[in-house]
Amino acid sequence: MHFKEYDTRLAAYALIVEDGQVLLTWFVGNENAVACWSMPGGGVEYDESVQDAVVREVFEETGYTVELGEPLNVHSFTDPAPGRDRRPYKSVRIFFAARVTGGSLGTTEVGGTTEYAQWIPVAEVPSLSPRADIVDVALGLK
Q1: Are 88 and 78 contacting, i.e. CB atoms less than 8 angstroms apart?
Q2: Is the pTM of this model over 0.85?
Q3: Is the pLDDT of residue 3 over 90?
Q4: Is 87:5 a contact under the CB 8 Å cutoff?
Q5: 3-state class of 7 per DSSP?
Q6: Would you list the DSSP string of 9-24?
Q7: Which CATH number describes the domain made up of 3-139?
Q8: Residues 127/135, Cβ–Cβ less than 8 Å
């Protein structure tokens, strides 16, 4: 399929692990997806860099300011079913290592898709349910 025939969603996420715990967010769900554990991050706005987007999203969803490390992974998938604009779409997700540099735990966005953030022991992640596939991709479980 030619790129003019589908929509692309670019998103960036942070993998933040400290003392054997990973910072996850609780996605509230919507008409396309159930509520579940997810990663801090989200869509890149038209006028921002990928790095600025993940820093902004982490603050909105967790209350923390972060310093980004290296990109860890790029994951993409396609969905031929009509999306928001009644066209097929491609999702491109970029993962960055990150570390907390300030702030305090608590969601700062109003009316967003994240209810709260929580530190979860990495060893417990495989038993979390429901969880978005993005968690498994970020942690190398998938």
Answers
A1: yes
A2: yes
A3: no
A4: yes
A5: strand
A6: EEEEEEE-EETTEEEE
A7: 3.90.79.10
A8: no
